[in-house]
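Teaching assistant here, posting this on the class forum so everyone can see the example we discussed in section. The complex has two components, and the goal was to see what a joint structure prediction looks like when all of them are supplied at once.
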Amino acid sequence: MSKLRLYLILLMCVLPLGAMAQNMKIEGSIRDSQTKEALAGVNVSVQGESAGTMTDGKGEFSITTQRGSVLEFSFIGYDKQEYVVKTNAKIQLEMEPSAIDMDEVIVVGASMKKSDLTGSVARVSERALQQTPSADLNAALQGKVAGVYIQNSAKPGEAASIKIRGNNSIQYGTSPIYVIDGLLVDQGFEMLNPSDIATIDVLKDASATAIYGARGANGVVVITTKKGQKGKPRVTYDGWFGAQNFSKTMPMIDGAQLHDLRVEAYINEFNNTSTLPAARREWYIENNFRSTTVPPNTIFTEDEMNAYLAGETYDWLDAVTQKAHQQNHAISVSGAGDKGSYFLSFNYNQQTGLMKNVSYKRYSGKVNLEQMVKPWLKVGTNSTFVYQSGHPVGNDNTFSTALTADPLLPVSGDYWYMRYGTEESQSHNNPIRDLNIVRDADQARFMSSNFVNINPVKGLDIRSTFSVDFMSKEDYTYYSTETTTSYKNSADGDAVQRKDKLLNWQWDNTVSYKTLIADKHSISAILGTNMSYYSYNWSNIDVRGFDNDFFLYKAIAGASKKEDFNVSSDFWTYSMASVFLRLGYVYDSRYYITLTGRYDGSSKFGPNNKWGFFPSVSASWNITGEKFMQNQHVVSNLRLRVGYGLAGNQNIPNYGYQTLYDVRATLASSALVNFGRYGNPDLRWEKQKQVNVGLDYGMFKDRLSFALDFFHIDNEDLLMTISKSPSSGYLTQLANVGTLRNKGVELSLNASPVRTKDWSWDIGFNISADRNKIIKLDGQAQEIYNLGGYTNNEIQSEGNLFVGQPLNTIYMYLFDRIVQESDMDYVNSLELSSRMVQPGDILPLDRDHNGIINDQDRTVVGVKDPKFYGGINTTLRWRGLELTLVGNYSYGAKRVSSLYNTLITSDGRGAAHEDILNRWTPENTNTTIPRAYHAFTGFGYGSTSLCVQDASFFRLSQVTLAYTFPHKWMRKIYLENLRIYFTGNNLLTATKYKGFDPETGDWYPNTRMYVAGINLSF
Amino acid sequence: MKKYIYIIIFFTIVGFSCKDPFLEQEPQTALSSEQVFENPESVQAFVYGLYYQWRTTRVNRKGFYTMLGTDEAQQGEYQVRTEPMQAAFDRYDGYYDSENTSIAEAWNIRWPVAVQASEGLYHINKLLGKASGEEAEQYKLFLGQISFYRACILFELTQYWGKLPLPNVVDGQNQLGARKSLQEVYKMITDDLETSIATLSEKRPTDGRIPTVWAAKMLLAKVYMAAPEESGYRNFAEARNLLEDLKNRGGFALESNYADLFDASKVAGHLPSEASTEEIFTFYFNNVWPDDNQAQWYCGSRACSSDPNCMYGGYDLILPTSYCVNIFEPGDKRKDVSIRTDFVYNGKQPSPAAGFGEDQLKPHFKKYEDVRIDGTKSFYNTGGNMYYFRYADALLMLAECMNETGNTSEAVTLVNTTVRTRAFGGALPAEYTWDTGMSQDEFRTKILDERMRELACEGWRRIDLARTGKFEELIRARNTWQVANPTVEAKHRLFPLPMVEIKQNPNLTGDQNPGLN
């Protein structure tokens, strides 16, 4: 504000007073106060009139008005400015980007100023989002906010996962909640059209999330969509086209090398198990293994031998994958008058998958309206409709089966199961046949948030918001008679129809009051209530016996195998209610304090503990507002923030407080069966106690700024499924057990080293580190194992919990050695059940030296969470040309690549990684790659710490080159703004990780996309 | 002013509507444990559920765990080589300890039946207090039925693990307890069976899942024959009385053709019209999930599994010992019904899958092959019935009791004229007719073999070996894995108590069966 005053004074000094009281044309230009860059699209309007205009691409405008009238300048992400017209002199204005002040955020049921959120909040503006052309918002957020860890999924159609401030719950829920214009949703956020979004605020600490008390434990992502701005109606078009391919291919050995590997593997097995006299052995090996004619060779088929002799290497992956492309078109129309505003948009997104037959389309429309009905009454709606339809992957294993296929096996769909050498594997469908699976899925979603705001006296707002979230999903699959799935189940064509419906509503009411006393005491209060109701149901029909494939899944009346019909359905509901009070006090824009108390109830808890109380307090001190800071010009912003608060989590299965008997059809009757879970009437809210200390710092007019936050979180009463003593009659129970401590630090840094008329250079960097530790588990328990596998009772390598260890551990044997000839005396002294361990094989460490290798010897060998992670981005501009680089990184996470484990221990019947060329042989003993072996029965590569890999990486996730056309050219073709750009996504990843991708894992390789796009508006 | 009044009214409504009723959302596709015990219809469904849960102990891989490691059955080579936990059932090695997850699974699947039955008994007794007439009669029948189920499952548990933390329901909730003495365990079992005998019918009810008095008596006889001496419940005379009664008044008869017992197309459902005259109590299955037992998947041969619809296919989990294969005398029709030696399918001799063991085409158990699915459905979906008690077993038990109570010749005659005559197709050749003059000890040896011939792969062998004291001796001599590396000892007659129980039940600290870890 002081800046504006300064300009006014300057203007008054320079200009003669007392101009004429008549219409005059005012011209001017507006630029960013920090970057000095011209601002296009700023709304310019005359107070009290509907007339208005907008700045052009050069930041210039002209408007006709009268002397004495007040011009208003507004632009998303900037502080509003006013200007009193005195003369017709050219106006030169600079607008302040709104830092943490003055911006409206719609939280549940209440409109708040962002400055009231004294906690840890990070904002991502529209401009930052634009840098990443992507159909998925999570992907666009990646690497941009400290403390927010986003892992993209490489699996087609699967959304990225997002974690705020590390791990704060053990089993139930690590994802934040999303609040879209006040509507709280916990899934499907990725369906939004990114072009509709004005800002994203990530609320990280408990005092910031306190307003969502009940559900804020994993952070809150608040999304505010665009609204119409006063001035000339505006039409925008954003379009891009992208071509996609896999960012990594596995380095595999070729057909000839595979042949040698197989021969060696069979010879090793033969030498270890054969009872033939030594004299006969060499003869047997020559005939059965080494011979190039089939027979006598027994380990290659004729096809394979022909391929080997011809030097062929077949690529099965190529047969099921394709080049993919995406396109996206978004149009919006917006505007505003004195009493109302409108924003309408339409979006079309279309993608084809990298897997054959996979594709996807999305249409979405949005209407945001606001209208002053009476001077004291305002109504509005934010409504979105999304429809998507497509063909998801028919069988999730198709890719991995094709990837690991035998490269000597000619690509063919002639047989049902995959063949590995002379054997066929019934657990691997022929991927070519999988292409006959027909899968059609669609999904419609309507999200609408509607409010009435009454403003009876100045400062008092009464607001009632009713929101609805409706989703309907249909997923149809047809396994034709040509598919292995149908063959294996003797199904004669198998049709599956799955339908899901979700209906949630939410009703929020708030009374808020705000006043300023004696110019220095700003007081605000919000009292609110919330009721939310969630209902979901699904049904699944699986019918078989079509004999032919005439009607796919569409005419299930033709299914004849009535005995094999499988039908199921479920219906559930849950509800929540809360009352909250939030008080804010600000003294002289220097001292801020906020108190929140929230009382939440959830139907997921039993009558004893339905309600929980979640208070929080936070304070901040704006040091630059102090007198002693007035006379210096170095520090432009210095603010200290402290907060403490409680947040809750109730994200558990429904009805956990009751012992339930489900229904099951058996022997022509309907039986009630309990499937192992025992009710716990004492279930209560999981509580998160969080302390946050933060510092915001800016110098040289914020050309260099940083924000630093420390947090300490104690998550108590963690909700988990625990195993019970079987003699209790029940095997599991939901319970509040355990404490998880999570500490961390986050730093984000922004700098603008160069800022001249033509050049500018900005750098942003953020880094976060968090450490978690399990302090306590159920009762005296020091560990809780994740059981699974064959018997459903074997300890898994991941998902186990140990007191004193972090949450995400890898639990295995320690790697002792690759056994050499000289170790055999020791090996023979060990009890290994019937596992074979010979020179060249892996031996785990007998940690307790008791001579038996069993579960007692397993231990935590690695942690899957990174030691630190973050992002870096930089933008270099020269006139209209702009180059942006975005990178993200993660350091210290460990990961097991099951894919690499498979490829490195191939017995030459399936594909093998090229590292296998360095395998153990009697001549090559100094290696950690075990020997080749067919039908191996020792300790697998994946059972010891040998397989734990460093998943640290740096990724150049984005490079964008953009050009904004000079405004004077554009005006000639009646355009306001025209920008074209080229982007490369995921161009480079530096990592030691041997699987497909250190971030997205092994399921599919990550993808790379080249995008060309255009933004225009008029 | 009006505005404010509206506002006040509005918030009052909102305030009230936030009260609790809104926060009470009941399940719509399940009943809570309170709702289950409200009326005869829901209790009926609960009792069906108990039978279902109990039957689950026979389904899938886990159904065979307690049959492995005997002189009758053993694991296939590939299983032993690749599954160290499960291999311990045959190897009796260092993995035969409290951390063995396969043994834990066998324990875990049985307790829900025992405890939920106990909770059911508690509630039904309460309902019975308020009911009258037909409803009361219905509740009484449920009491008898559930008591029988609980007695059966506790009998298995105590035979396999010894002393047990018995269920103890107070105010509808089971209280975790310490292990109780064998006297207390067998008292609970026999008390339950007395309840069953007092409330159940002698005639087979319309639904075969409901036991008769004879089923209860049969189990009581088994209890008297198998209870360890220290329990004070071993009593051959009492068992003999029960079995004589069953023989004289039960109305059971041996099927004339042994093969019919295991021909799924002949003996089908749980309705009386379909019942065999030999059934006393049966686990009923069919080919439709969840009523299939998947037994062939584990009994069958991998060499035959490439055609999913070949009825011989499977994965070699459980195979007969060579002693079991060779125990049948020439002409004994039970061999062909019990053991598959010929794997030619559709005129083709299958070849073993390399690397999956040398025993894929060695003799396999055949009783759970299901002709109904041959060529049409996967061998995963087998659903032949599994007998729990059948009349032939009762006759062999009776003969054993006769021998133990000093009537060896009567015992020999009984076996010759019933079970063995049927085995040879109705005419027992003289050379295979047992000599009535044999000694009591000789009879003991012979009857144990005869039980293997008659009841192979029906699940009684482990208990038979333990109760006759022949456990370690015969297993060492006849089980392939023990012949190769004899490790089994008397201490292995009981399984170790699993870690999951020891750790989570505060009353069991440091408790373990003697000699085991």
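For the discussion questions: The radius of gyration of chain A is 32 Å. The longest helix of chain A spans residues 255-273. Think about how each of these relates to the inputs above.
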